[in-house]
Design a protein that fits this description.
Elements lengths: L8 H17 L11 E2 L3 H13 L6 H11 L18 H13 L8 H13 L7 H9 L31 H15 L9 H7 L19 H12 L3 H16 L12 H13 L7 H11 L2 E4 L2 E4 L5 H14 L7 H12 L32 H10 L7 H16 L28 H4 L5 H15 L6 H13 L14 H14 L7 H12 L12 H5 L10 H13 L6 H14 L5 H4 L3 E4 L3 E5 L2 H17 L1
Antiparallel strand pairs: 1-5, 2-3, 4-5
Helix pairs in contact: 1-26, 2-3, 2-4, 2-11, 4-5, 4-6, 7-10, 7-11, 13-14, 13-15, 13-26, 15-16, 15-18, 18-19, 18-20, 20-21, 20-23, 23-24, 23-26
Length: 631
């Protein structure tokens, strides 16, 4: 920015070209872009624990993962899921300690591990951990299954007409819950050397009341299952039928790389469930699963990391779209190879999504390269946006239309869009007495997904508020805007993410600025500008469900906020100018924490994501939109 306060447009162009060069250089031979999907210690710990349980070696991967775990331990002995998390995270600390103990990398008597134990004790002990962590304690025999809410395996057999059934859970929840139900049914646990010492190290804080005691009005899944048990007279035949159903459910959803639904955490649980059912440790299914998980390794600034999933399709779609916006020619080799890769990733098989959306042809895209049966709305609209130049062009154009038809068919009855499946918002899911909450077990409409769909429909399909599908989505956003003018984003952090997605979507379909909902949202967004000119929101917002400001701005969140403001202003405002100056400054500091702050959300208080692609993609889009409008 010049002294007089006017942009140096040339500087914006220079930064845009630099980002373009970085992305062009990162393309793989097959046309894809492969960036790391980085999270906390959970996935590294789970993989290390699996290696120990199975007695496997990992060709140097184990010491590299241990090195990253040790590098990310705080001076207080804890582990965090985001940098400004107070003191540490109970789940992350427990999981990291278990992995280090069982691999022999650390001893419970180590001073830093003693500090970790003291932290856990002060926080309330293992009872304060998340569900996956507590299941891990069950699987390793540190806590008995009797202290968990055990869902009877007969739950799998509840019919479709039942008010409560297994498929009320969304797909990513089902593939985690099914193996836990199976392992809990067998009360399965492994007994490894060193268990006694770890038992002595584990803080024995007073336990919370049992999970079932937390249920309202005496409701529980055990009560819900009582009638089916009575009718079957607890016959072993019904029980074993349910066990077989659960086993087959998992096996039939294994992807080509051996993983369950392309997730590390579900694959981790599946392996324990298979062991509980008598599968030997060297069984081909187990070995293939471990090979698939090993392929999830990526490099981070603190060492080698095993990703929860690979983000190849998502990254490729966003990069190709961003480069296309920034002037990449469609006839170029880069664009053609990227388009071919995306087209090859379009799914052509019916998945579980079709149960609640019958008669619709496949046509969506998933998140990971290996994903062939679990498409999602965000990856589909991102892929369609990137491939929109192919619309109306032969077989490729037909593939695009199939994707559009699938996307439109997934609109929920309430008018919004959710991430994975349609109308997964039953009330009973909110009664599950686990800290993760309804949004984990179901898949309700969300402001971020709904807003992003609207933006796609406006920018690439040409729809406006006159379309009935658009009006229904606008109505959903209207009724779910918070009193302060913001929207909560389910899959990003958090209010900046949701408000950016909603505003840019509404702008794309022609909702004018003078509308009260728009005026409120813009006022809220401006009010969150930091003193440095940018925007930064803490992951704490996702936990506390209220906006919590970061003391300094981040690259990605500043780009999001500016994008939203640009979409609703005819001329650069002082707020936009200050924001752009901050963004340009941040882009010149690629090694700063503002580049690596996690802005992806998965599990509130437990799982956050640093997308390595985001500091390149979102600023590139924002700079390009600024230049197209005012450059």
């Amino acid at each position: 920015m010049e002294e007089g306060g006017r942009f140096v447009v040339e500087r914006i162009r220079e930064q845009r070209e630099r980002l373009k060069r970085q992305l062009l250089a990162a393309q793989s031979a097959d046309g894809s872009w492969n960036f790391c999907f980085e999270s906390g210690p959970m996935t590294d710990a789970y993989y290390l624990l699996l290696l120990k349980v199975l007695g496997m070696e990992a060709d140097g991967l184990q010491p590299a993962l241990i090195e990253r775990l040790l590098a990310n331990q705080t001076d207080e002995g804890t582990w965090k899921t985001y940098p400004d998390e107070s003191e540490g995270n109970v789940s992350a600390t427990l999981e990291a300690c278990l992995a280090l103990f069982y691999t022999g990398a650390k001893d419970p008597s180590d001073p830093r591990m003693k500090r970790a134990r003291q932290f856990l004790l002060e926080q309330g002990g293992p009872s304060r951990a998340g569900s996956l962590t507590r299941v891990t304690l069950n699987l390793f025999g540190h806590k008995p299954w009797e202290f968990r809410m055990r869902v009877p395996v007969e739950f799998f057999l509840m019919p479709r007409w039942s008010p409560i059934q297994f498929f009320d859970l969304v797909g990513y929840a089902r593939v985690h819950v099914a193996p836990v139900i199976l392992a809990a049914d067998r009360r399965f646990s492994v007994q490894l050397p060193g268990k006694q010492e770890i038992d002595e190290w584990l803080p024995q804080a007073p336990s919370l009341p049992s999970d079932q005691a937390l249920l309202p009005d005496g409701w529980s899944l055990e009560v819900a299952m009582r009638e089916i048990r009575r009718q079957a007279a607890l016959r072993r035949e019904l029980h074993e039928k349910a066990v077989r159903w659960g086993r087959d459910f998992m096996l039939s959803r294994i992807e080509g790389d051996g993983t369950l639904y392309s997730y590390l955490s579900s694959t981790y649980l599946m392996i324990f469930a298979l062991l509980s059912l008598g599968f030997p440790k060297h069984h081909p299914v187990v070995r293939r699963a471990m090979g698939g998980l090993a392929s999830f390794a990526c490099s981070t600034p603190t060492g080698t990391h095993i990703q929860e999933a690979t983000s190849t399709v998502w990254d490729t779609a966003l990069v190709l779209q961003s480069l296309g916006m920034a002037g990449l020619e469609q006839g170029s080799d880069t664009w053609q190879r990227g388009a071919r890769f995306l087209l090859s990733m379009q799914q052509d098989r019916l998945g579980d999504w079709a149960r609640d959306n019958p008669g619709v042809h496949p046509g969506g895209w998933g998140f990971s390269r290996s994903n062939t049966m679990n498409p999602d709305i965000d990856d589909t609209l991102a892929s369609l946006s990137a491939l929109s130049p192919l619309r109306g062009k032969g077989a490729e154009g037909e593939a695009w239309e199939r994707g559009l038809a699938w996307l439109l068919s997934m609109q929920n009855d309430d008018g919004g869009w959710s991430a994975f499946e349609k109308n997964k918002d039953k009330r009973w899911l909110s009664l599950i007495p686990l800290k993760e909450g309804k949004q984990v077990w179901g898949d309700p409409s969300s402001a971020d997904i709904t807003g992003r769909v609207l933006r796609f429909l406006g920018e690439h399909v040409g729809w406006t508020i006159d379309r009935p599908e658009v009006r229904r989505a606008w109505s959903w956003l209207y009724h779910h805007q918070r009193l302060d003018g913001s929207w909560f984003g389910r899959w990003g952090i958090a209010y900046l993410y949701g408000t950016w997605a909603a505003l840019t979507g509404l702008a794309a379909v022609g909702v004018p600025r003078h509308q009260p909902m728009i005026k409120k949202a813009l006022k809220w967004l401006v009010s969150k500008q930091n003193e440095d000119g940018g925007w930064g929101e803490s992951c704490k917002s996702d936990v506390k469900r209220t906006y919590i400001r970061l003391p300094r701005s981040t690259v990605v969140q500043t780009a999001w906020a500016l994008d939203a403001l640009i979409s609703y202003h005819e001329q650069p405002t002082p707020v936009i100018e200050r924001g752009m100056a901050c963004l340009l400054s941040l882009l010149e500091q690629p090694n700063s924490w503002q580049w690596r702050y996690p802005v992806g959300a998965g599990l509130a208080g437990q799982f956050y994501v640093t997308y390595h692609s985001y500091p390149l993609i979102w600023p590139l889009q924002t700079l390009t939109r600024y230049l197209k409008k005012w450059g």
